[in-house]
């Protein structure tokens, strides 16, 4: 019975489609992407502050080091926190750092804010909540745990849909981990698989206070409209806040929209003022004395050669910035430009598929082979999900062949013994360039869920610096090295057989995974 509940409709009125703004592309290099700052704040930084990580183990070790070194803030947003030994060690690191802060002279400065999804974080008897309650009990003044509950799971739907299946309606899917002024953007969750043998992407932005402030404010804004975990494992809303599934849905979504857009718009205004100030002070007629003062006080920062644009997608709240920017990037990609796009779950929206098939750039799309799909070998209905992805992939490949686009649009399957694949994002190589000047990295999978159901965030990193471009290129190459090109014979293999019932059900449920 529960499998049919996957077909439950999303009980929301359709959100009007927002068309992307007209693009005023500059002709030269990285600066052609400055139109993005019309929508979101633009953070100019030095490329020396950006480090691309390559492995789950490196990601895990960095998390521990950063937690132990934190003095003012630890802010972590994830789908969930796992319950194994590696996750417990992270909790111990937090406990140790909080204890040190408590013992320091004066009032403790360290604040820890954790944002997870309510349904995923509450799954099972031992779960994310039970892992974090000891921290809440021991450090009640310093620790906050917020559990986002989608407003679309309510009423009869909420009563009928069982655990696990209720996660199909909508989730908090953002993954950002920040420690003082250091920010890690990733698609990886806080779970042992993501620390060992589940391949993802990770980037560290060091000494970036403005970016850290932005994501702190974003997580706070979502946290404020989320359920607050209590020391006795109950949850409650902040005083005066509309309840996500008991209160008025339109009122809740409007408050959430206002809160998030306030963060985006105020950061954008701050950055524009900063940009104007920097621009004027760097002009030939600016005061030499003020420049000398800046140098003397050590405030003079290196000229930025890299720009960070946070892209937020929260369709339940009517926020579609990531979708608009992604569609514009795909639309504007010129002939002979190359786009390397990767997703752990190949289930592109119709709009993204149409743009890929109807535009001029070359595409190399990396996706999971069935054996490295996160649902491979799962029990029950979930075990058929890899076959559903094979069916979706086959349909898309057939369309590519029908349009005779096989040379321009190439599918590649990631395959690695003993590993699963969860990497997502894209790299954009301008025509004639052997290195990418833009990458998207974060939580979205480019699928229906990412665009319509879940809360998502990623960043566009645009850089003129060749060394950072080289880092991004090596990251892309390392992932694509573990792949094989998809051809007609791929779908003739025995492990690609898709049962009739899966073919019949997939079109009905593809918007839920």
From TrEMBL:
* Pathway info: Phospholipid metabolism; phosphatidylglycerol biosynthesis; phosphatidylglycerol from CDP-diacylglycerol: step 1/2
Low complexity bias located where? 281-298
Report the leader peptide range: 1-19
Q: Which GO terms describe its biological process?
A: cardiolipin biosynthetic process
Where are the stretches annotated Disordered? 279-302
Reactions catalysed: a CDP-1,2-diacyl-sn-glycerol + sn-glycerol 3-phosphate = a 1,2-diacyl-sn-glycero-3-phospho-(1'-sn-glycero-3'-phosphate) + CMP + H(+)
The family note in this entry says: Belongs to the CDP-alcohol phosphatidyltransferase class-II family.
* The organism's taxonomic lineage, starting at the top: Eukaryota, Metazoa, Chordata, Craniata, Vertebrata
- Give the organism the record lists: Tichodroma muraria
The coiled-coil regions, if any, are none
Name its cellular compartments.
Mitochondrion
Q: What is its EC number?
A: 2.7.8.5
**Where does the PLD phosphodiesterase domain lie?**
168-194
List UniProt keywords, sorted A-Z: ATP-binding, Lipid biosynthesis, Lipid metabolism, Mitochondrion, Nucleotide-binding, Phospholipid biosynthesis, Phospholipid metabolism, Repeat, Signal, Transferase
Q: What is this protein called?
A: CDP-diacylglycerol--glycerol-3-phosphate 3-phosphatidyltransferase
- MF term (GO), any: CDP-diacylglycerol-glycerol-3-phosphate 3-phosphatidyltransferase activity
Please explain the role this protein plays, according to its UniProt record: Functions in the biosynthesis of the anionic phospholipids phosphatidylglycerol and cardiolipin.
Give a Gene Ontology cellular component term annotated to this protein.
Answer: mitochondrion
Supply the InterPro entries for this chain.
Answer: PGS1, PLipase_D/transphosphatidylase
């Amino acid at each position: 019975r529960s499998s049919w509940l996957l077909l439950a409709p999303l009980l929301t009125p359709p959100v009007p489609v927002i068309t992307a703004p007209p693009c005023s592309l500059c002709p030269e290099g990285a600066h052609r992407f400055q139109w993005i700052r019309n929508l979101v704040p633009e953070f100019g930084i030095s490329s020396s502050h950006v480090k691309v990580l390559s492995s789950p183990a490196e990601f895990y070790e960095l998390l521990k080091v950063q937690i132990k070194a934190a003095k003012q803030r630890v802010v972590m947003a994830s789908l969930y926190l796992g319950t194994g030994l590696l996750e417990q060690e992270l909790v111990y690191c937090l406990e140790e750092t909080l204890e040190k802060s408590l013992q320091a002279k004066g009032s403790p400065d360290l604040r820890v804010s954790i944002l997870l999804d309510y349904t995923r974080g509450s799954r099972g008897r031992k779960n994310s909540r039970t892992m974090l309650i000891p921290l809440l009990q021991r450090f009640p003044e310093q620790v906050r745990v917020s559990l986002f509950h989608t407003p679309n799971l309510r009423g009869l739907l909420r009563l009928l849909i069982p655990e696990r299946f209720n996660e199909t309606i909508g989730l908090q899917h953002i993954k950002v981990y920040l420690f003082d002024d250091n920010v890690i953007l990733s698609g990886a969750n806080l779970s042992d698989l993501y620390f060992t043998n589940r391949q993802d992407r990770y980037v560290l932005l060091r000494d970036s206070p403005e970016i850290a402030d932005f994501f702190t404010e974003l997580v706070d804004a979502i946290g404020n409209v989320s359920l607050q975990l209590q020391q006795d494992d109950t949850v409650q809303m902040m005083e005066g806040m509309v309840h996500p599934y008991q209160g008025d849905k339109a009122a809740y979504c409007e408050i959430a929209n206002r809160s998030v857009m306030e963060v985006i718009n105020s950061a954008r205004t701050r950055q524009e003022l900063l940009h104007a100030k920097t621009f004027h002070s760097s002009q030939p007629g600016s005061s030499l004395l003020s420049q000398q003062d800046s140098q003397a006080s050590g405030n003079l920062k290196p000229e930025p050669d890299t720009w960070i644009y946070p892209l937020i997608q929260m369709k339940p709240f009517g926020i579609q910035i990531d979708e608009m920017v992604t569609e514009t990037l795909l639309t504007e990609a010129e002939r002979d430009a190359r786009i390397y796009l990767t997703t752990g779950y190949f289930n592109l929206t119709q709009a993204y598929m149409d743009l890929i098939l109807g535009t001029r750039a070359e595409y190399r799309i990396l996706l999971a082979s069935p054996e490295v799909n996160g649902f491979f070998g799962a029990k029950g209905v979930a075990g058929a999900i890899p076959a559903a992805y094979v069916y979706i992939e086959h349909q898309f490949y057939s369309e590519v062949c029908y349009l005779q686009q096989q040379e321009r649009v190439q599918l590649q399957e990631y395959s690695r013994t003993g590993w699963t694949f969860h990497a997502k994002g894209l790299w954009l190589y301008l025509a004639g360039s052997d290195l990418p000047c833009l990458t998207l990295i974060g939580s979205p999978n480019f699928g229906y869920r990412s665009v319509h159901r879940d809360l998502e965030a990623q960043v566009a990193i645009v850089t003129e610096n060749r060394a950072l471009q080289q880092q991004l290129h090596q990251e892309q190459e390392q992932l694509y090295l573990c792949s094989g090109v998809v051809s007609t014979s791929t779908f003739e293999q025995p492990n690609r057989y898709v049962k009739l019932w899966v073919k019949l059900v997939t079109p009905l449920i593809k918007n839920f995974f």
